[in-house]
Queue: 3 jobs
Job 1
Amino acid sequence: MRNPRTIPVTSSTPSPIAILALLLILAGCQRGPALASCEEATTPRLVIDRCFGGEAVAENFIGDIACFPFGPAETMKGIWRVSKDRSAFRLASDPDVRQADMWLETADVPAVAQKAALGDRERRFAVELVARPSLCPGFFGHDGTLPREIVVERFTFTRPVGT
């Protein structure tokens, strides 16, 4: 007896690999041209075409990594300030206190920081992490207030600092 959950493969049934390739091609066609420079990354029309599929609607946004130029992952150490509306990171090696913070984007907030991220008071953490830094200035984070962003691949160390 034939398993009703399987699809019989015939010469007219495309392979799963062919279907995946077609979907990737179609997804790529829906985006605008790649942002080739930092100047293009701040040109509103190009950002709307590339990052929103031509219409500036939040639901259309493809995500920072797909939209803006980012460097390869690197290990970083610093201080992370986190609250409901803030996720700011400053490198430990940055002696210039006037240097702007970077928005820290992470899909997996460490358990020790979850209360702050969900609306409890702001907290600070000494962190070591592996992240991809933005290569160009932009408008990252809550309300686009920070000029740089890092996208965390993983935290290797997170320790609360201060009270």
Job 2
Amino acid sequence: MNPETPEKPADDNHEAEMTQNLRQDVASWSEGRSEGTGHHRAFGAETGRSAVAKHEAPTAAPAVKRVRTKAKPVTAPVVSTGPKKPFSMSYDGVSAAEHNAARLSRSTR
């Protein structure tokens, strides 16, 4: 007896029985399915006919004509004549000098 693979003759026999039962179940299911029994007969469908109604393919919707509006004329951007104002941060409507003064007053104790 090999310690790595213990012999189990009872399990092999059980496995063969299970396989045989599954084959019988599949065979009976396939036979019943091919005869149109089971579900179809339970709902009153005739043998050989599908219980699902056949539907025709839907037709395409008619094309809708789009109404095109005239494009708005493109206007040139307004060019300022004076020097460009430099970037500055916004401090809730307070000038940079006032903001700095408030920060300094809060930081000194």
Job 3
Amino acid sequence: MGTFDLIFAVVLIAATIWAMTWFPDIPGGTEGHHEALTARFTELKSKVDVTARSASESDNRAKELGDKVRTLQSQLDESQQREKAGAEASRAVSSALESKLQKAIASDQAAVGSAGGQSVASLSLGYLFTRGKLELSPPGKLALCSVASASSNPTIRVVASAGKKDIPPALAAKLKTPLDYSLAVAGLVTQTLIEQCKATPAKVSATGLPAEPSTAPKLEGKKLGGARVELWINGT
């Protein structure tokens, strides 16, 4: 081997050692290293893109759920406000009724309660009607108009209930059943509320029940048993 060949071999070996030192795990030297870096960059970029899309979808879903939660919360707040306003109005009406019916309540001829956000005034038939007749007594008329004026433009549901023994003998031939009698009582009370107490006709309704209804709502407050008229009031 000549001197030139020896020098060339030494240079080649040195270059090989240098390449292996700088790129020990990359076959093919500089070109292989570049290709490996490009492949790794592409892989990482793909993962980043997938993660970004997932994050964007998650953000959109979170925003959608957040909007729904805010909508439901707003509806709940409005419902609670209406319920609170209704309860306050019912208490105000009940307080006015207790004041207006004070004498009748003191003599156990009337009672004031509440149920389902409504105020309820109960009046005994013996107090409302002239004995033995289907005719309102003066105190009865006054009591009905007092109830009608306890709130502004109220909605009033008249519910009359009576048993067989409560039908006056003079009316038994015409009003033969408790239901007949209760309907006649409810009708007369409704007529009086509209014509003499100036209640709005469209806001007054009447129902007659034979004796004590088995599904009668439970009232909060003082209760009145026996033959009676209940005035269920929605108003402010």
